[in-house]
Amino acid sequence: ASMNRSALCTLAALAAFGLSGCGKEEPPAVPQKASPPPPPELAIKIGHVGPLTGNIAHLGKDNENGARLAVEEINAKGVMVEGKKLKIEFVGEDDQADPKTGTVVAQKLVDAKVNGVVGHLNSGTTIPASKIYADAGIPQISPSATNPTYTQQGFKTAMRVMANDIQQGKVLGEFAVQKLGAKSVAIIDDRTAYGQGLADEVEKAAKAGGAKIVAREFTKNDATDFKAILTKIKGRKPDAVFYGGMDAQAGPMAKQMKQLGIKAKLMSGDGACTPEFVKLAGDAADGFYCTQAGLPLERMADKT
What we know:
- By secondary structure, this protein is α/β, with parallel strands linked by helices.
- It contains 10 helices and 11 strands.
- It has helices spanning 2-16, 57-77, 99-111, 123-136, 149-152, 165-178, 193-208, 227-234, 247-259, 275-281; strands spanning 41-50, 80-81, 84-94, 116-118, 140-142, 158-160, 184-189, 212-218, 240-244, 265-268, 289-290.
- The chain has a 6-stranded mixed sheet with strand order 2-3-1-4-5-6. It has a 5-stranded parallel sheet with strand order 8-7-9-10-11, covered by helices on one side.
- The model is unreliable at 1-23 (pLDDT under 50).
């Protein structure tokens, strides 16, 4: 009976302490400091346009990948603008290197209310699209359109990040005469705003340097067979041949020049100054001269 009374007393004692771990008190709860709310976001849209299909899609995709990478890097840095975290949405479009399609996708970006546009790639698409962006007050920065007309229209929204073809063509024409010693030059262009515009500037500079233009021919920017043009040029025996256009034509042209036994040096501008040219030309790429419409990164003052 005494044991029962003792057990009852123990149970009563435990009940009095609320069965708190055999008589040990829990430490008082520490209030948790609330995490600060995330900063509000400032969302903007940046559009990019280039040829993502067709024979220079490799160039358009390079430009688009560069723009996408820049957007990803900026978003990852958590850039703050007036107390808000900048978040950029990337909107890509394909203009197929076609002027008409270029204006259609330009209007599509305007309707999507983009805050700025990187593009277009070709001068022939960049120039007509620039009016649409200007009318909408949307900044446009072309990474590769070199035709002077683009920035000579007076649009405050139109910008580029490299030299234009007045400068590039002058350098090419002078190089042909002064460095290659060319007394005669044959010129071919693809009849685009870029190719023909650059070829015109090369012709001016070569003539000013004392060279004779022995042929001025043209092709199309989707052509692959140039043997008829080149056979005509071969009979004129030029010291140098300049092609105004892109790598998709310059590569096969170089190969066909070698097949026809044309000894003239082949020259072109930035549109053909690519690894794709070397791939398409094969061993005929040896001795090819081309320009880039901007300083190499290592020679620029600000490398960041």
